[in-house]
Design brief:
Layout: E1 7-17, E2 23-34, E3 39-43, H1 50-57, E4 65-74, E5 77-78, H2 84-90, E6 95-98, H3 102-105, H4 112-123, H5 128-141, H6 147-150, H7 160-172, E7 178-182, H8 190-207, E8 210-215, H9 218-224, E9 227-232, E10 235-241, H10 242-247, H11 252-259, H12 299-303, E11 309-312, E12 315-317
Parallel strand pairs: 3-8, 3-9, 6-7, 7-8
Antiparallel strand pairs: 1-2, 1-4, 4-5, 9-10, 10-12, 11-12
Helix pairs in contact: 4-5, 5-7, 7-8
Length: 323
């Protein structure tokens, strides 16, 4: 493994064992790596496996889910093999996560200050007074004009944007090496979205934090990511730089996603659309998982599952068209 690789995921399979004996293959054999200070976007429709990938990295998969195979190597250590106690030292300290809905991620019965202080006292071993002082500094850093009052307030007293800023303060409190942001701007209006993403970018540059940005918004990807992985049916179907993805997309699914975006450069009467929906993860098609929806489908696609193959330096695609 390259020495500068911060996170390396190899052959990761996370399955859910359902009551009717069906197996939901939510994440089914994915491989990727993230380097220090790099922002990697993971994109795809709802149900493609993005959030389960992030929860697998954090070892937060509960029954009936299970990591069936694979490794998640962080700083040379396989997180899959760690005990709950060992993993608790990693979560919030070396790897932090911002969830997509801050109102459910924040504890409604504790003040914002208490929730930041808890992380600092647990991982940084600060005293209560030191932790409170640092909590106020962090809130100021993420744009709270009245941080001294905010530490005493509860989540319901803050707006959606301010709650998300508080989540970022908690996530960045221990200067993590990796920040996982799971659709951090979903419930926010466009202006606040831009502020939150700019804030994350600023924090990343200040602390040289690597970011795994999970989103379905390709506009966000174009603006903030260095590299992008397109996910479909529990697998990565395209992996390349952001520039290559937008100038030369390869996979029919990626092309469909890009054609569904409005453009200021050309006038179209109707935006493109991908027919159908993502298949349920317990009943994927036999061959390519996109075959039922693909405009370029061949007989081979319905019978043989394609592998992720390199088409050029730094551009991998899972499609029979490029074999």
């Amino acid at each position: 493994m390259m020495q500068d690789t911060l996170l390396k995921v190899e052959g990761l399979k996370t399955y859910f064992y359902l009551d009717d004996k069906k197996i939901s293959k939510a994440v089914d054999g994915i491989n990727f790596s993230i380097n220090p200070g790099e922002t990697v976007a993971l994109v795809g429709e709802s149900g493609s496996g993005k959030s389960i990938t992030s929860l697998s990295i954090m070892q937060l998969i509960n029954k009936p889910g299970k990591i069936k195979e694979g490794s998640v190597t962080f700083n040379g250590e396989d997180l899959v093999k760690l005990s709950d106690k060992q993993m608790a030292k990693v979560r919030g300290n070396d790897i932090a996560m911002i969830f997509q809905e801050p109102m459910t991620a924040l504890n409604p019965v504790f003040t914002i200050g208490n929730q930041i202080m808890e992380t600092l006292m647990k991982h940084k071993k600060l005293s209560k007074i030191q932790a409170q002082k640092r909590a106020i500094e962090l809130l100021k850093m993420v744009g709270f004009p009245r941080a001294e009052e905010t530490v005493k307030e509860y989540p319901h007293q803050l707006s959606g944007g301010m709650r998300q800023r508080a989540m970022i303060a908690i996530a960045m409190s221990c200067d993590p090496k990796l920040l996982i942001a799971d659709e951090p701007t979903t419930a926010l209006d466009v202006t606040i979205q831009a502020q939150i993403l700019d804030l994350m970018k600023e924090m990343k540059e200040k602390f040289n934090t690597a970011v795994l940005l999970i989103t379905h918004d390709l506009g966000v990807v174009a603006e903030y990511a260095d590299r992008v992985m397109v996910m479909y049916g529990g697998q990565i179907v395209e992996d390349t730089t952001v520039e290559r993805l937008f100038t030369n997309p390869k996979h029919p699914y990626t092309i469909g996603l890009l054609e569904s975006l409005p453009s200021i450069e050309k006038e179209v009467r109707r935006l493109g659309a991908i027919k159908g929906t993502v298949p349920p993860s317990h009943s994927f098609p036999t061959g390519c998982r996109f075959s039922d929806r693909c405009p370029k489908v061949m007989d081979k696609c319905r019978e043989i599952h394609p592998e992720l193959i390199p088409t050029e330096t730094g551009h991998d695609v899972r499609c029979h068209l490029y074999e």
